[in-house]
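FAQ

Q: What does a record look like?
A: Structure on top, sequence underneath. For example:
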C-alpha cells in the first residue's frame, strides 16, 4: 500500500539534492520539509558533486535552464549515479526550445535516471521529438484522456523501456510506468494547474519517496504522485470564500504536512495496468 512509502519518508527523512528552477525553489523546499524529508539546493559546478555525496537522492529540473547550471547538472547526475542514488529528471519545457530539448536529451543519454517526470508533451519531445509545449504546459492535443487512455499507457511503457527508467506522466490522469506495469492515477484537481510549481514540487517529493524506498521504486513513485494529487483535493476542500491561488498553494503544502498513511491509502485513486 502507498501508505508504507509515505511512512518511510517520514521515518528515514532523506536529504534530497535539488538542482531546480528559481521560480519554484522555495515551494520545492517547503513541500520536502512537509513530507518529512530535508532539502538542499545547490547548482554550482564547484560544489554539486560534494553536495550530492552527502544526500540520498538528486532532483534535476531544467525549468530555468542556463549555461551556468548545465555543467552542474551533468556533474551531479554522474556522481549520484556512481553512488547508487536515485536520480530524477524533470524536463520542463522540453520541446519549447532547442536548448531545453537538446539538454534534456543529453542528460537522458548520459545519466541513468531512476525516474523521468513531466507532462506528456515534454516526454514526447524527449523521446521522439514529437509533441509541442505551450511554454511549460502540455499541448491540449497531447492530453491523456479516458478516450485515449490505452494509447497513453502503451506510450508510457514504451518510453520507460526506451529510457530504462520509470516514466511519470502527469496531467488530468497521471501515468506512472516501467516497461511492464503502469499505475493509472486519478487523484488531483484541475485548479492545481493554475498554481506555478506543483509539478516542480512533485519532482522534489518523488525524489524523496524514491530515496526512502530503495528497491520499491515503481510503487514509491506512484505513491508520491497520488499523494500530491490527493493533497490538491484536500486543499481545495478547505478553501474558504475569498481564498485564491496563494492560499491554495499553501494549503497543498499543509495537506502534505498533515497527510498520514491511512489518509493516503483511503484517498488514493488508482488502477494497475
Amino acid at each position: 500500500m502507498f501508505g508504507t512509502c509515505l511512512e518511510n519518508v517520514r521515518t528515514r527523512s532523506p536529504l534530497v539534492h535539488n538542482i531546480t528552477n528559481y521560480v519554484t525553489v522555495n515551494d520545492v523546499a517547503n513541500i520536502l520539509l512537509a513530507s518529512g524529508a530535508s532539502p538542499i539546493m545547490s547548482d554550482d559546478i564547484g560544489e554539486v558533486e560534494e553536495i550530492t555525496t552527502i544526500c540520498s537522492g538528486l532532483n534535476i529540473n531544467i525549468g530555468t535552464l542556463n549555461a551556468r547550471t548545465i555543467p552542474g547538472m551533468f556533474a551531479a547526475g554522474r556522481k549520484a549515479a556512481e553512488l547508487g542514488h536515485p536520480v530524477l529528471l524533470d524536463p520542463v519545457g522540453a520541446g519549447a526550445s532547442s536548448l531545453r530539448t537538446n539538454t534534456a536529451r543529453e542528460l537522458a543519454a548520459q545519466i541513468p535516471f531512476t525516474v523521468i517526470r513531466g507532462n506528456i508533451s515534454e516526454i514526447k519531445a524527449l523521446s521522439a521529438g514529437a509533441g509541442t509545449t505551450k511554454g511549460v504546459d502540455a499541448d491540449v492535443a497531447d492530453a491523456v484522456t479516458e478516450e485515449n487512455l490505452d494509447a497513453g499507457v502503451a506510450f508510457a511503457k514504451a518510453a520507460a523501456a526506451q529510457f530504462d527508467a520509470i516514466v511519470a506522466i502527469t496531467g488530468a490522469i497521471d501515468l506512472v510506468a516501467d516497461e511492464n506495469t503502469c499505475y493509472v492515477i486519478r487523484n488531483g484537481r484541475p485548479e492545481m494547474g493554475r498554481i506555478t510549481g506543483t509539478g516542480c514540487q512533485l519532482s522534489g517529493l518523488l525524489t524523496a519517496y524514491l530515496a526512502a524506498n530503495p528497491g520499491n521504486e515503481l510503487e514509491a513513485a506512484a505513491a508520491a504522485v497520488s499523494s500530491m494529487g490527493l493533497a490538491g483535493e484536500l486543499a481545495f476542500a478547505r478553501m474558504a470564500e475569498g481564498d485564491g491561488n496563494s492560499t491554495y498553494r499553501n494549503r497543498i503544502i499543509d495537506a502534505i504536512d498533515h497527510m498520514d498513511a491511512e489518509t493516503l491509502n483511503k484517498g488514493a485513486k488508482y488502477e494497475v495496468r
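Q: Is there anything notable about this one?
A: The chain has one domain: 2-272.
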